[in-house]
Amino acid sequence: MRYPKRRGRLSVPGRKVGLATAAILLATTVAACGGGQNDSAPKAPATIPELTKDPLTLSFIWFDWPPAHALEDFANAEYAKERPNVTVKVKTVPNANWHDAMFTQFAAHKTDFDIPILDSQHIGEAVTNGNILDITDFVRQNIDVEAYNPYLLAAYGQFPQAETGKRDENASLYGLPLLGDTWTMIYRKDLIGDKPPQTWDEMISVAGKCQADNPGVSGLAFHQANGSDAAAVTYNTVNGVYGGNLWNPKTRKIDGVLNDAAGHEAMDVLVNKMKPLTAKGSGNWFIDEVNAAVAQGKACIAFNWIAASGGLLDPKQSTLGTTREEILGKLGFAALPSQKTNLVPLGGMGMHVSAYSPEANQAEALNFMKWFEQADIQKKWAAAGGVPSRTDALESPEFLNAAPFNQVYTDSVPRMRDMWNVPEYARLVDIENTNVNAALNGAKTPKEALDDIAKEQQSVLDAGSGKGGGGL
Amino acid sequence: MSDSAPLTSDQPGQVASATPPAPGRSRRLSDRGLAVAFTSPALLLLLAMSVFPLLWALYLSFTDYSATRGGQADFVGFGNYTAILASEQVHLRALTTLIYVVGAVTLQTVLGFAIAYLISRRTHGRGLLTTLFLVPMMLSPVVVGLFWRFMLDAQFGVINSMLGSLGLGQVEWLTGQRTALISLILVDTWQWTPFIMLIALAGLTAVPKYLYEAASIDRASEWFRFRTITLPLVWPLLLIAVLFRAIEAFRLFDLVYILTSGGPGVSTETLSFHVYKVAFLGFNTGTASAYGILMVLVVIVLTQLYLRYLNKLKED
């Protein structure tokens, strides 16, 4: 016997499946559409709510570098004395994924971290999207703001962005300093002498002579890669030193400001005077590659972030000596030379509280921040390898004696300048990175690259950040 | 008396349904019900994970939605599509992608077929050789990218070290405007030539031996045998391998991300890498969705043309 072939409408189970499918699609659509976003950051309570006595993991997110591991070890050793039920976990991602790893989770309105460690320039994007808590009231009641250089406090927490060197006391705060940082000049004392060059022009001249006198050793090593903010920070540093400006924050003008005479001079110095003194093929170097060149004795003068320089003194990672003292006999650390100005790049990051973290974790995060910003804890953080931000910690022997480059940081604090802290930051820095990298690698002339940066960045600012169209 | 199941049928698909339900099975569940019950989990998963995101991306592509900035997704019609098609930035990435696809796939096809042809002529060690050649294909592209990044480093890399020992100068593999794209093509070729080789080898093994024997009797030259027997019989299979590789190469992202980050400047930025930047740096979700949909359309259209050519080849 043969069973008849079914025709026509779906059977009852078929229809049920169809209905279920439609329901799932509808539910998924609702889920995808749901969760309308805040236009501004939600507020944290002024006082810390009651903390849980249950075991709790307080999660940070940062990129993978030595300070991230130092923070986890330090917090678990010290914070556990006050809050034994809390375990601190610092989740790390590759530097190039740092922004995306945080903001894709923010976009999903669900984060697996409680404390995002944002670069100072990320704050605008996070605040505008309502991703982090407004902690202005909390800071007012729990933090001694007078203990900080006002600009440091502003750079890691204030939005809208503070004017360079200042803090607007009426502006809202969204974060507190975690790790201060700036560039240090690393120079070979055995090749160029104990006294570091004082001006940028002198530095270039000394590097050129050193390269000529020492075959196989390049005059300079610095960040040139087109990932993260590598090449952009390099240009911004030279731009600042030669008296240029990145933009006019009041009029939101970049075109005509960045690419003025000073800007072009800076790009010319970078591409035509500094680049020829670097190693061949160094056009994609970032933090690790610069450190490797220094550790292997391949560079006379190098520039790198202070927080990433600790490994240079490790004899296991260096060919410059078998002991820390021997290495220090050859390596010197100094604040950046000045030229028309003495500006240096602001690095480092602040702690913020995820708006999507559970309430118990948000309370714990606020408690951690209050604990971390105490004077004695900041000194302990300095001794553990961190770079604190409180002035008393910066001037303490615990910090100044912990590493030979710490004095450089303390001296550099009044000289710092940041980039743009606006919601469009990620696109602005990408435009600058790719174009500076193109100029450094001969894909564009310096003039063409700088004019392209100014034009493209201006179009991003002019388009605004309200909608998701455009972006090409 | 019961009907017996026919041994042959002009509708082979119905033979299975001629078997009566097994004793003891619930009478409430028909064969069709069972089929639906078994297939529905996979179908629902497919709908939720593939079909819905595609439809959702299609919807977003007509809006100015941003995943982080949120708010109302306003309908912009074909605005995103026209902006993409008119953008010089996109044209530049399209050209880079085209050069990459043509360069990589051509090189892989020539090399893959040549290796397969040489292996097919061996009688001993063919299995071992084939296995060894397949190793690169088994590796993750990220791992491949990372170790080639070290090997191609201008200062510390083994490639330049070897060139130096031969008295040749240093090459800026990953930072030169021209060499960076060539490096990407070479690394992709290193990894994916085995894929073409494998398919070509399958085709070569399937060529009937008697054709070669007949050609030998006629004293046909090696080149004549290759041109008139080997190549025509392997060609359709080879074209399918080329199709797969071209689609893969068209959406290249991982190698670019690891090896060059699209540099120097944007000279090795492919379309996929550009979409990533639009989607996750600026979070311009509407534009990125339209960009992705356009890339899918390009692949579909080109594949259809290609398949028509293949069918025509078969008919001929």
Automatic annotation (TrEMBL), chain B:
Coiled coil: none
Membrane topology: Multi-pass membrane protein
Chain residue ranges for the region called Disordered: 1-27
Signal peptide per UniProt: none
Polar residues: compositionally biased ranges: 1-17
Subcellular location: Cell membrane; Membrane
Transmembrane portions of the chain: 34-59, 98-119, 131-151, 192-212, 224-247, 288-307
Keywords recorded for this protein, A-Z: Membrane, Transmembrane, Transmembrane helix, Transport
Family matches, as Pfam families: BPD_transp_1 (PF00528)
UniProt keyword Membrane, yes or no: yes
Positions of the ABC transmembrane type-1 domain: 94-306
Family: Belongs to the binding-protein-dependent transport system permease family.
Protein name: Carbohydrate ABC transporter permease
